[in-house]
């Protein structure tokens, strides 16, 4: 007889996990601290649009939701860079016109919750879990009227985000290592509406970035013709959220640093002062599970900053891996959770590091002509040597190669690209004049140096 499963958090990962488990015959109950977003209005200002990539799509295949979400997804084939000098450049993501997809977090979450209920999952809204007795799997809830109640779970998953009640309860146990790290930067959601005729004000199929060294503005397209913008800025300092106290401060800041964006943002002042300034956190914890009784998943296990667009994709891949382990080990949850922890913990740590590195790339390096040249060379290497070279970005976004493998390839790729760029203009080289054989040798050296790594599919 299948065990009953309780999941804390009816967000993206919790809802998807509930569907996967219900389809395999488990009785599943979800507890969500917020009201039902399908009925209540969602407060604006806390959404960083989702960038769906290969790992996310694979998990949606498991839920049978790919076709539904494809209709709501906008392909972004590259970065559209709005440079400080007023110039613009398009930087393609993949060598074969691959794309990441802008998806509405709210719409995806609603569809997942509806599908979960259609499968027979019970969802209890407005149940805020305040703590978990990990040894007995007793959950303590606070209800909107101030009353409390307890429930005992058979098998428990914490999918309740970076400040997970289950994670916080793990931290109080012996031999648990946990840490959290806040960026000095925060973020604020802003908006670019469509033109009066409904047309988009910028290129639709791109992730727009205004890189300004220590801060940046980004914009992702929506199906209603709007762009969801996010300003990433230090909390404190000369150029910071703290320095933007008045309407004039904000107008001057945007006119100085994002002059081309200002005409497209008629509600800038209302959005800036009406939407919250939110923090960016990275968390680590070890272990991710307790015996055969409970486990963390998604942001509860590995909250990361959003700069690789992999937060949801990594959480969905957790679900894909669990589904594979269920297929392999049946109802042996002791073995399943041990393997899940061993397989996913290194990749959770790796994607956190990749996301922090990509913040530096997005806000700073993409404004550097040398870096842009390197990106062009990466794509050319992928075309010339498809069996031997794939860029780290393509590993992360367009494959199922483990995050840990991608992270460990960075140093070798830096060395290879450094060699190539030290020889001068790559695209002006005469491949028939000895450079071709030298390039092949360098690529072979790179390939041999990373061959011992695991390039197999994580999910």
In short:
The chain has 459 residues and is an alpha/beta fold.
The proportion of strand residues reads 15-25%
Sheet/helix structural class: alpha/beta
Uncertain spans: none
The number of strands is 19
Q: At the fourth CATH level, what is the homologous superfamily of the largest domain?
A: FAD/NAD(P)-binding domain
Q: What's the CATH topology label of the largest domain?
A: FAD/NAD(P)-binding domain
If helices are DSSP runs of H or I spanning 4 or more residues, what is the number of helices?
15
Structural features, described:
The chain has 459 residues and is α/β, with parallel strands linked by helices. The protein folds into three domains: 5-76 and 104-180 and 280-360, FAD/NAD(P)-binding domain (3-Layer(bba) Sandwich), CATH 3.50.50; 183-279; 368-450, no CATH class. The chain has helices spanning 12-23, 54-63, 66-70, 105-119, 165-171, 247-257, 268-274, 299-302, 311-329, 333-363, 369-384, 392-398, 403-408, 410-422, 431-450; strands at 5-8, 28-31, 50-52, 74-76, 78-82, 88-92, 100-103, 122-124, 128-133, 138-142, 148-152, 155-158, 177-192, 207-211, 216-221, 227-234, 278-286, 289-290, 294-296. Strands 6-5-14-15-16-13-17 form a seven-stranded mixed beta sheet, with helices on both faces. Strands 8-2-1-12-19-18 form a six-stranded mixed beta sheet, with helices on both faces. The protein has a three-stranded antiparallel beta sheet with strand order 3-7-4. Helix 1 runs parallel beside helix 9. The model has no long low-confidence stretch (mean pLDDT 93).
